[in-house]
Automatic annotation (TrEMBL):
The keyword Secreted does not apply. Its cofactor is FAD. Pfam families: FAD_binding_2, Succ_DH_flav_C. Involved in the biosynthesis of pyridine alkaloid natural products, leading mainly to the production of anabasine, anatabine, nicotine and nornicotine, effective deterrents against herbivores with antiparasitic and pesticide properties (neurotoxins); nornicotine serves as the precursor in the synthesis of the carcinogen compound N'-nitrosonornicotine (NNN). Catalyzes the oxidation of L-aspartate to iminoaspartate. It comes from Nyssa sinensis. This is L-aspartate oxidase. Belongs to the FAD-dependent oxidoreductase 2 family. NadB subfamily. It catalyses: L-aspartate + O2 = iminosuccinate + H2O2.
Length: 282
């Protein structure tokens, strides 16, 4: 077992998470390994068990005693920096829509999330958004005729269970494929070429999937959970890729080999696509 983090950063294992993730990624590629080992066994057993009771119990279920053995680990996507642009009360530029937690882009995290800030963010902003959203509900008059402006959404039951089953299976496959594209081409270490490849493949996958839906008799007004989520995933994936392509520097969790350094002259605010007005202040 060879300790490698000091080779990458003087802060070693305590370097920021993007540095550690890139270092692990580099080691995995160099050594053609599937995981690296995280060893905490030099700490007193009681200390480990009192600090990490859940992880210790979980690992033990798989026969791994973390007080004596190293833990196999790989980097994983575990936070989305960005999201629906929100003000300090969770308000958005859609009047009456409030967001809190990981879905929100409050500016709290900058280019890299600090440890445990996401849970704090979810709690603080949920609390902040509560009163204004209740006030909004109490003061707004709902125009019930507004829903007649659009065609009524159709539940796709009329397609029959056979066709619906096929659509669901295909959508699940497409979802996995999109996840693979994002992991392989838009992951820890990026490049312009790989991002462009992702952009192209995502576009093709989306067109292909949409065409499949309509071949199966899907109609524009049909609404189903899997289809809605798939469209949202495509939308998010495309936004992440186009934002990454627009940033010609590396900053926080965005690292590209074509622009590997932090460059103040290329600094951009959190990228918002499409250009949207400031969130309402009332
Ligand atoms: C591996 C991992 C480790 C992490 N470690 C930490 C950590 O140590 N410290 C820390 O602070 N943060 C950590 N995070 C991040 C933190 O867990 C999340 O940011 C936080 O849980 C987000 O909370 P949320 O309520 O905003 O969203 P979520 O917890 O994602 O909740 C969203 C909910 O909405 C539901 N939902 C989705 N779509 C629909 C729909 N269409 N209709 C109805 N419901 C829907 C989902 O089922 C889910 O229950 C970690 C995340 C991961 C993945």
């Amino acid at each position: 077992m060879e300790r490698f983090m000091p080779l990458y950063d003087e802060r070693a294992e305590l370097a920021p998470r993007d540095v550690v993730a890139r270092s692990i990624d580099d080691q995995l590629k160099r050594r053609n390994e599937k995981y690296v080992l995280l060893d905490i066994s030099h700490k007193p057993r009681e200390k480990i068990l009192s600090h990490f009771p859940n992880i210790a119990a979980e690992c033990l279920q798989y026969g791994l005693d973390i007080t004596r053995q190293p833990i196999p680990v790989v980097p994983a996507a575990h936070y989305m920096c960005g999201g629906v642009r929100a003000g300090l009360q969770g308000e958005t530029n859609v009047r009456g829509l409030y967001v809190a937690g990981e879905v929100a882009c409050t500016g709290l995290h900058g280019a890299n999330r600090l440890a445990s800030n996401s849970l704090l963010e979810a709690l603080v902003f949920a609390r902040r958004a509560l009163e204004p959203s209740i006030d909004h509900m109490n003061s707004s008059r709902i125009d019930r005729s507004a829903s007649d402006w659009w065609a009524r959404p159709l539940v796709p039951m009329s397609l029959g269970s056979n066709v619906l089953g096929k659509i669901t299976r295909r959508t699940r496959e497409v979802r996995k494929e999109l996840q693979s594209i994002m992991w392989d081409y838009v992951g820890i270490v990026r490049s312009t070429t790989r991002l462009e490849t992702a952009e192209q493949r995502i576009g093709e996958l989306e067109l292909d999937w949409e065409a499949y839906l309509f071949q199966q008799g899907w109609e524009p007004t049909m609404v189903g959970i899997e289809a809605c989520e798939m469209r949202n995933l495509f939308c998010c994936a495309k936004l992440v890729v186009s934002s990454a392509l627009a940033r010609h520097e590396s900053r926080g969790l965005h690292y590209t080999i074509d622009f590997p350094h932090l460059e103040e002259s290329k600094r951009l605010p959190t990228i918002i696509f499409p250009c949207s007005p400031e969130p309402p202040q009332d």
